[in-house]
Amino acid sequence: MGSPVAGTTLFILCLISLTTTFAAAAFWPYDLRQGLEQAVRGRLLAGSGGGGAVVPISWSHAHYVANFTIGSPPQPASGIIDLSGELVWTQCAQCKLRRGGCFKQELPLFDPAKSNTYKTEPCGTDLCDSIPPDSRNCSSSGDGKNVCVYAADTRGGETGGVVGTDVFAVGSTANASLAFGCVVDSDIDAAAGLDGASGFVGLGRTPWSLVSQTGVAAFSYCLAGAGKGNSALFLGDAAKLTAGKSAPTTPFVNISGGDDEAFDNYYKVRLDGVKAGDAVIALPAGGSVVLLDTYSPVTFLVDGAYQALKKAVTVAVGGAPTAAPLKPFDVCFPKSSAGGAPELVLTFQGGAAMRVPPASYLLDDGNGGVCLAILSSARLRLPRELEGISILGSLQQENIHLLFDLEKKTLSFEPADCSKLN
């Protein structure tokens, strides 16, 4: 048995702010507007091709963040790694928030005027015209040209900006020409911002994501966890598992009987079984579609299975749960009694089994206790036809190397010490 994960009060506070906004932009995939990112079906710019690249990523507050540069000469930027993210975007120097001022970030704002390779996308091109009419417009630039501007909901909040292109250096990928959102307006809190990041790096199944634009056939990532060293994102030929073809593998799936278009950007697999130690957790008939996620730290399990899992963990721990669990969690235990917590085994379609130790699902509450960092998907308030959906959060993916084969449309994974892979 593993020991409960060590955490900090700061981490707990960040997690609380994330998981108490289920119906808001922090996590509400069904309500995402069909804006720019999902609708783009036009030109893709040439990137780094099928070569390999390693992108170091680090834990910052409650998210995984990558540093990169944009422009010539290069200007530093940073983005939250979002597995389902639909585009790459960063805040630009021309921002003019409706509430005044740009949102707070640690690095200087990207200034397109200082890049010799920055270009705005003109109106009337295939790329601009592929954006839904209610999400795009034209704006006159300083030189009198009409440039393509857009509005889109993102995981950070609603943003608007200029459709631009420039050269990026992301990890060991240099001079990749990417289309991106140069954000000049948003409803992101000006003081809180994105915990210091200047934008997002989307890896989703959409034409504007980093993996689509660089043209890689596969990518992988390995998350080390808070305070446990750097994590890494691997693109193209660098995305390999030690076990190779023998690694547990499961196919991507679609959502049956629901609005799959609302989740096009997500990588989805089917969960067929869950065990907590010797306890078998019942799932709905046909299993549960799981959305893989790096933005949400916690996992959301379909409600019936969650209730059974909560009971199984409580029985295995043996000690009485804390009378007043730390919100938003449903159940917490004294740390001294958590040694009996069972390993979880998630079995996906095809028999691929993922083992989740107690250290990856029991979160230190900073006050002598640990809390079950798995919640009911009922909190997401999804429509009835989508109530069978679960989400696998980043905490439960720690020290598991996950490989996404975009050609075969499969997910493979293996346990790993993520801090030693970059």
Automatic annotation (TrEMBL):
The keyword Transcription does not apply. Pfam families: TAXi_C, TAXi_N. One of its GO terms (biological process) is proteolysis. Residues 1-25 form the signal peptide. The keyword Signal applies. Residues 64-414 form the Peptidase A1 domain. CDD domains: pepsin_A_like_plant. GO terms for cellular component: extracellular region. GO terms for molecular function: aspartic-type endopeptidase activity. It comes from the Eukaryota. Keywords: Aspartyl protease, Glycoprotein, Hydrolase, Protease, Signal. Belongs to the peptidase A1 family. This is Peptidase A1 domain-containing protein.
